Amino acid sequence: MTEPIGDIHSLASRPDVESNPIEAPTIFKKGEFYYLLTSWDTCCSGIDSTYKVAMGRATSVTGPYVYKDGNRLDEGGGTVILGSESNQIGPGGQDVYEKFGKYYMIHHYYDGDADGVIRMQIRHMEWKDGWPYFRRTGCKC
């Protein structure tokens, strides 16, 4: 068995939601902030998936991660920045890639127009006042 090295830090939790459905964390740094993205709710159920991506940011990699309203992710806070939209159901399982100062989120979703076939997507992250967001396209990608 492998033993952890150093301190263990709780970064995010959903204690008020049955089974605490949170997974697929990814952390990246932009400027002075670290950003934590997590997937919430139910994955891997095709068009019945309720997966979504939530986030918070911190000035230290160990947190605490908060959203604009000050709610801490380790106390059940966080804000959904990407949920089901149009034919794209249950986005999640994300990672972030940076190239030449532009940030992209890579994730999967279930295609509601193709009986829930799983698809991969790269989305450009937009920024406003130090917070990432995604344009809503309503696309049938």
UniProtKB/TrEMBL annotation:
<dbReference type="Pfam" id="PF04616">
    <property type="entry name" value="Glyco_hydro_43"/>
</dbReference>
<keyword id="KW-0326">Glycosidase</keyword>
<dbReference type="GO" id="GO:0004553">
    <property type="term" value="F:hydrolase activity, hydrolyzing O-glycosyl compounds"/>
</dbReference>
<comment type="similarity">
    <text>Belongs to the glycosyl hydrolase 43 family.</text>
</comment>
<dbReference type="InterPro" id="IPR006710">
    <property type="entry name" value="Glyco_hydro_43"/>
</dbReference>
<comment type="pathway">
    <text>Glycan metabolism; L-arabinan degradation.</text>
</comment>
<keyword id="KW-0378">Hydrolase</keyword>
<dbReference type="InterPro" id="IPR023296">
    <property type="entry name" value="Glyco_hydro_beta-prop_sf"/>
</dbReference>
<dbReference type="InterPro" id="IPR050727">
    <property type="entry name" value="GH43_arabinanases"/>
</dbReference>
<dbReference type="GO" id="GO:0005975">
    <property type="term" value="P:carbohydrate metabolic process"/>
</dbReference>
<protein>
    <submittedName>
        <fullName>Beta-xylosidase</fullName>
    </submittedName>
</protein>
